[in-house]
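Morning run. Coffee first, then this:
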Amino acid sequence: MSNFAAWFAKKSPEEQEHLLREIPRLFLESGEVNKLFKLLADFYFIEVKLNHPQFGLNSLLEDYDLLDQPEVCSDSNYAETVKSLKLIPGALLRSGHIIYPDPKQLNGQLSARLAYFDAPEIKQLIEQISADEKTNLYSLIGSLTPPGAGGLIRTLTGHSSSVRAVAITPDSKTVIAGSDDKTIKIWDLATGSEKFTLTGHSYWVRAVAITPDGKTVISGSWDNTIKIWDVATKSEKFTLTGHNNSVRAVAITSDGKTVISGSGDNTIKIWDLATGKQKFTLISHSYPVSAVAITPDGKMVISGSWDNTIKIWDLATGKQKFTLTGHSNSVNALGITPDSKTVISGSWDKTIKIWDLVTGRQKFTLTGHSYWVSAVAITPDGKTLISGSDDKTIKIWDLTTGKQQFTLTSHSNSVSAVAVTSDGKTLISGSWDNTIKIWDLATGKQKFTLTGHSGSVSAVAITPDGKTVISGSEDNTIKIWNLATARQQFTLTGHSNSVNALGITPDGKTVISGSGDNTIKIWNLATGSEKFTLIGHSYPVSALAITPDGRTLISAFEDNTIKIWDLATGSEKFTLTGHSSSVNAVAITPDGKTVISGSGDNTIKIWDVATGAAIAAFTGESPITCCTVAADGVTIVAGELSGRLHFLRLQGR
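And here it is:
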């Protein structure tokens, strides 16, 4: 499609607009369905459209809606192709909040979500992504949530306090959110962009609902009121008053005529939405009502309370039918099956209970849990990856295939650091259990354990000759160990807070330590004496890396910045800014020209060391806790707080 791109670029903006609107539909209407498939599957067309100033994600997704046309979806000859192509808009939808503001991440997002699939159309797309010569990141394996797999699709940001309630319009295109910042925000679900904000409540908004026609929003607040909002005009219509405590839950009947509200005054009120008048009040709970729901047939109201019970009410008469008991803590969430026969309740007792609404009997209870990746390292041959996790284990992975080889277990707390000797045979791990463990990487067997720190071990490093281990701890010290004998040689003291990061110069003569006391110290490894201290920050040092020539130090801080230092003079060269949260990890390519950083803002950024410019980025699904780069200088592995590992390739370098 490079010819198409060149041809397209020569058109006027008006012609481009017309073509982008009409080409897909013209193929379908002319009966040339195969050409439509080729067009929709072509990566470059997607990229052109996403970068076009007048078009975005919504118009692209509308093109993929053509796959639902009867002449396409009802033809068995196209069934598998349609199934494959629908994965693309599914992936785009999941990554829309990232691609919309930053189209350059298209390569990385699509490849990380689609590499799981073997369909020819998807393979073609991945091949085109890998052939792109522009500076960018793409994923070697599927590492983000794939389309159709459930899980996180989008993150919306903008509220300045906790979001306590959400609702979705009937057309599934708009999200309404209520927050402790006293506002209700309206969001475009496809792009993740905020449409507008409704203000007027004087306290936390804890409940929202929308009428079946999508035109009216109802909000409940701790200011004791319920407000009715017109979506079209973005204005308040009127306010319902009558509760003498916070409104914690609201619901609307399927005909859009009646509002039900649950309150901290222990009551449920029934309101006429057209007139704003109160019909009647339901009284029986002995503690605040935290959840309300209405059966789809509109006949019954279900309420959940801090009194640990669920009550069933007749909506026509306002009379209580019966009470469901069984939870050992407050009931905070309710759901009802479409047939109005089953109620699902969620409670602070950590369980979900399933109830028969006809008999009032409990059917069964559901329970469950999970942990994250906190450290990674790669063997010198670039073939094996080691990851340490808060699940107390270390996992060994084949870097070529991304498959797990085996798991090392022995630590009694989170594994916070890992490193590999230069011969690739020995692994060292540091843990919150205050120990450093030495492992035979070939067999996975533990050799021995080094003990001596009085606090958690937060960082480890190995000298280039593989003879000495350096460990940093929350006891504020750095210890030097003989790897052959497992004996401690000496201890470096001087930091006034935990040692969070360590580095060793390529000549093995100098140790660099970063601390929670906001300083970086430079040590002579032979004598154990401090050379000098680097200062300039009011936040803890979170990560360190040294260029292969030993001349430049890169340090990451919890103030969201990365600093570049001249290691000979101790002077700061410049500061890299762009992350919106703490930088948790940094790595340097073997040629010393490129820095990789991982942050709590879920992103991995690639920086040019010479200019300090950010040249590429990749956004994950949770904070990035660690990163490393292989010997080829373009393969990057990063670990997330969620436990995901990303295998990325840097293009155009």
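DSSP finds ten helices and 48 strands in the chain. Good start to the day.
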